[in-house]
Design goal:
Blueprint lengths: L2 H29 L2 H14 L3 H26 L3 H5 L4 H15 L4 H18 L4 H19 L5 H27 L9 H5 L1 H10 L3 H18 L5 H31 L10 H13 L3 H31 L5 H16 L3 H29 L8 H23 L23 H17 L15 H8 L5 H4 L4
Helix pairs in contact: 1-8, 1-11, 1-12, 1-14, 2-3, 2-12, 2-13, 3-10, 3-11, 3-12, 3-16, 5-14, 5-16, 6-7, 6-14, 6-15, 7-14, 7-15, 8-12, 8-13, 8-14, 11-12, 11-14, 13-14, 14-15, 16-17, 17-18
Length: 479
Amino acid sequence: MSSSGTTNSTSSKKRTISTLFAVGLMLFSMFFGAGNLIFPPMLGIESGDHFVPAITGFLLTGVFMPVITVIAVAVSGSGVRDLASRAGAIFGVAFSVVAYLSIGPFYALPRAAAIGYELGIESTFGLSGGLWRLACTAVFFSIAFAIVMFPGKVADTLGNYLTPVLLILLAVLTIVGIRSMNNPPIEATEEYSSNALVAGVLQGYFTMDSIAALAFAIIVVSSFGGSGITDHKKVVKLTSIAAITAGAFLLLVYIGLGVMGTRMPDKSSYSDGAAVLSSASKLTLGSTGDMVFSGVVLLACLTTAVGLIAACSAFFNELLPGISYRAWAITFTLIGFGISNLGLERILSMSAPVIGVIYPSAIALVLLSMFHLLVPRHRLPYSYRTAVYVALLFSLIDLGVNHNLLGMESLTFTSSIPLFTEGLGWLIPTVVATAIAFAVDMSRGRMRKESLISGEIDESLHSDVTSGSSTPNAAGKDD
């Protein structure tokens, strides 16, 4: 090989590594919103001497699930719609539209701005009132929109600039906090003393990062495409590495914040994780603590908002190409700005039920798709449809009982459903029903003896998803 060829190869490899690291940091920053910031410290306080199993459970659903969700979407082809279409073409469109709207402009996006204002500005600097909220959220969305307007630069801006600053502030806060505070952990609360692992799993589940991962995956995949990487296998490989990189940073930050929570003084005086972090900042960093806390909150919220606007705009531009990416970005920015000024409490009360309904179906879809990677030549149409619809049914029952819709509060059979009171009543019925559907798929000849557990993903699956089809081989359309 000539020297010029070697130089070009080395240069290309360096660019790929640089892009990979930037995308990994970008994905971390999009996941790590203010909600993720406040969960681990409170878990550390409440789990006390049961911290290890509690944080293990939290990492399972707060880190592992989002990581495999990103990988699952990358393998499926172009995005959430392809993945969801395995349960049917109509479901694929309906689910992806509802998912993007609910985790984007109608919930997570305005929530990020509201949390940024209420924790990063109002509680820190005392700038309260409707006009201050309006002004601060206007600045917040203006910055987010300015970054989003250059979709090819989102990974570069977040991964190379904003996220390193966020990580430095987090490192200062956690390392100084852990080193300067050495109070012994308290006895675990009843929730954690009875089953710390399950309690931690539930806390990680309620970060709802798995459904956010469905949206963010499209940004990761397109970031590699924008760097000139078009081979599907290579995109899947790089996306997997980027997702694992983001997961590794999330793991380190969550453990650090959790350990800091176990070492806080006067543990019984804190009502939530925000109060824990605010107090820790002041105790360990003195007068600069407020600035560090505010910086962490605002950067965490801003990077998440950028990711949400970019992901939603890219998806709807692909779904309805007659409307430009810029037009969608303007629309979603304005919607998010308007809803954010309703206040955090109203945003949560209005939007959280919708998220609670679609979240179980999203998790069922992702877990089954990951299982499908082990048997890529096998067709599982009934398995996919059963998994998502049973999860949807029981999440609707949960919504009806908890909000007494149509008199459903009086239903008595829900008391016999495992984990129903914990908000996971859909889990066992979905697993059982999907196992039965799996057996039906097998009996109808939709299974073959050949398996690629140790080999590569079936080429027919690749050709379907990369051609932009609704993945008939993967979805297992009826013969």
